[in-house]
């Protein structure tokens, strides 16, 4: 199978790419900063590119390049996302909000549209995964743009699931749970006056209560293969990883 992951230069995206490659998938990886191939992956099984997901033409070009070099894309993961600006919306810089929406909403829209066109261009269907968050349904003071963008991702995915069902495209909005990435480090470093719930995330870090990237990747594969994923069948959440599993025990 060929899998595409956006935002694959670091964090969850890089972790998903590495696990998919371990599972024998050929991978197309993009990010604003050119991503590295997963460790141990054969050169012929990987396509990497620097892509601004807010640029619809660039995303479409990348989709075509991956399909041409690796074959039909069976899984497309719109993972690219940003957190900033953090703080009360009244204090947010308008340009920073625009940049946030360009990545978190338009980036998902463009990736989704390109993949839907790709699926309709050949037989066999496919699975679209848009990375969401618990913030899509739980309001966090200080995360106005982030909560709004992830709520948009959930509803967009529900719409596309209806629009593309006849083409065999399965659309899922997947909340991965809390994964210890650079984004989480940024969250923990945010002053409480800008992000009042920050202590919750500091406590999670102290307890090591995170989902690993491999755990999330394995659940994405399981959701993709399941006849009836949990939740409403479109918006799903990765369960919390047992701590003994994280430790390898």
Which SSEs are present, and which pair or pack?
Layout: E1 2-6, H1 11-22, E2 26-31, E3 46-50, H2 56-70, E4 73-78, H3 94-120, E5 126-131, H4 144-163, E6 169-175, H5 182-188, H6 198-207, H7 213-225, E7 235-237, H8 243-246
Parallel strand pairs: 1-2, 1-4, 2-3, 4-5, 5-6, 6-7
Structural class: alpha/beta
CATH domain topology: Rossmann fold
CATH homologous superfamily caption: NAD(P)-binding Rossmann-like Domain
CATH architecture: 3-Layer(aba) Sandwich
Number of strand elements: 7
Q: Give a short account of the largest sheet.
A: 7 strands, parallel
Order of helices and strands: EHEEHEHEHEHHHEH
State the shape. Answer: globular
How helix-rich are the residues, as a percent range?
40-55%
The portion of residues forming beta strands comes to 15-25%
Count of folded domains: 1
Q: What strand line-up does the widest sheet have?
A: 3-2-1-4-5-6-7
CATH class: Alpha Beta
Q: Compute the gyration radius: what is it?
A: 17 Å
Whole-Å distance between the termini? 30 Å
Describe this protein's structure:
By secondary structure, the protein is an alpha/beta fold. It has a single domain (2-179, 211-246), classed as NAD(P)-binding Rossmann-like Domain (Rossmann fold), CATH 3.40.50. The chain is built from eight helices and seven strands, in the order βαββαβαβαβαααβα. The protein has helices at 11-22, 56-70, 94-120, 144-163, 182-188, 198-207, 213-225, 243-246, and strands at 2-6, 26-31, 46-50, 73-78, 126-131, 169-175, 235-237. A seven-stranded parallel beta sheet has the order 3-2-1-4-5-6-7, sandwiched between helices. α4 (144-163) links the parallel β5 (126-131) and β6. The two termini are 30 Å apart.
């Amino acid at each position: 199978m060929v899998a595409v992951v956006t935002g694959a230069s670091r964090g969850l995206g890089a972790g998903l790419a590495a696990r998919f490659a371990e599972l024998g998938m050929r991978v197309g990886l993009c990010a604003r900063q050119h991503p590295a191939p997963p460790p141990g992956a054969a050169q012929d099984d990987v396509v990497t590119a620097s892509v601004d997901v807010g640029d619809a033409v660039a995303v479409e070009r990348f989709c075509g390049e991956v399909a041409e070099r690796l074959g039909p894309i069976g899984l497309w993961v719109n993972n690219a996302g940003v957190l900033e600006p953090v703080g009360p919306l009244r204090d947010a810089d308008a340009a920073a909000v625009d940049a946030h929406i360009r990545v978190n909403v338009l980036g998902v829209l463009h990736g989704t549209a390109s993949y839907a066109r790709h699926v309709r261009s050949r037989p066999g269907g496919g699975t679209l995964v848009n990375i969401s968050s618990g913030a899509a349904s739980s309001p966090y003071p200080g995360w106005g743009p982030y909560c709004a963008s992830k709520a948009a991702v959930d509803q967009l995915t529900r719409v596309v699931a209806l629009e593309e069902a006849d083409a065999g495209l399965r659309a899922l909005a997947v909340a991965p749970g809390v994964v210890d990435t650079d984004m989480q480090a940024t969250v923990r470093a945010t002053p409480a006056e800008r992000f009042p719930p920050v202590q919750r995330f500091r406590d999670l870090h102290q307890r090591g209560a995170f989902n690993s990237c491999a755990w999330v990747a394995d659940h994405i594969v399981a959701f993709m293969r399941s006849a009836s994923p949990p939740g409403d069948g479109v918006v799903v959440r990765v369960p919390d990883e047992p701590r003994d599993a994280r430790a390898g025990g």
